[in-house]
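User: I'm curious what two different proteins look like when written out as structure tokens. Can you demonstrate?

Assistant: Sure. I'll show them one after the other, since each token string lines up with its own sequence. Here's the first protein:
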Amino acid sequence: MARPTCNTCHFVKTDCICAHVKTLSNRTNIIVLQHKGEEKNAKNTVRLAELIYSNITVLVGETPEDFEALKELPQNSSALLYPTEDAEPLEDNNTASHLTHLIVLDGTWKKANKLFFSLDILSQFKQVSFSQLPENRYHIRKANRMDSLSSLEAIAYTLNLTEKLAMEPAYTALEAMMENQFKHMPAEVRARYKQND
């Protein structure tokens, strides 16, 4: 039988994180393209981003037809957060100040790459990335790249750069979610993750 879930955060009630969530009002429109394989992943951080940020849209899918809404975005002020060689650093104030919509690919690197190369429309948008990264605080999921951030951390850092929004609300919610996941792990597995903190 399914365990009851919180109507707000959608975690099971024993793992509710609502007390650890602070809502922030962001000016930049965050458009998350979530690979359908991530939608029900308990370790996915986009659900936290949806709780924290007031201006965020999550589109789930895998094919161009799933992301038709991208055609409505203003090309001159929208950007894709993706670390290509030509990506402009968001630390550049000129890049950040003109941004109204930020597209974020949500998935493992393999899934994100698949979205990037299968969605031709993404090539119409300027690419942006980071010249330097904050420490990755999300230790639950393994990443193939040393410069990886979770989707929540990437969004939080972007909004810190573009709007000076504090990153601490994202870290607080992330820590609460990780602690709940640690509770359900065998002691030896939990200890291994804790050593990496």
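Here's a second, unrelated protein for contrast:
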Amino acid sequence: MSTRTLVVVSAGLSVPSSTRLLADRLAQAGIEALATRGIDATAEVVELRAHARDLADNLVTGFPNTSLRAAIDTVVGADGLIAVTPIFSASYSGLFKTFFDVLDRESLTGKPVLLGATAGTARHSLALEHGMRPLFAYLRAVVAPTAVFAASEDWAGGDATGAALSERIRRAAGELADLVAQRPRALTADPFDNPTPFEALLAGQ
């Protein structure tokens, strides 16, 4: 079996958080969907909460520190990305947006992405379409058709509500798996693999 890596970006602020809970369920469903397509997959999680101060520093200095650089490299090197945010004031969180603001604008080009969001009420569900999807379209990622929104009632709304959420997760994960399976494995280029010889630098080449 070939191997792929799914990276989960979770912008939840509390511990534990419904955002991370949804992210974990999407990741597990993605791994299972890839397995049915003959692809072994692993999942790595980037918790943006741990990088809040790093991101603020990056905004004012223009450079990520070592910890944030590792998180960015993990995301850029993923075969598939699962991006999940809480919804505040009818849009994605500032922490979530800041992370994608500091990425190189070409770094997600062609990358399969599954979108997810959580909020206290279903009234925020359209934020996935009017906020998150345009963001990743701008970054030229390939976004799965189904995005997954979970409101408070999805976690405590009884069997029928829980089944509806599970079905959305299953369908979205299947779409992500199809996108990942069709794309060659992501290769993270090391900028130091082919350094310019010192003699060439001296010669101005």
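A detail about the second structure: The CA atoms of residues 154 and 165 lie 7 Å apart.
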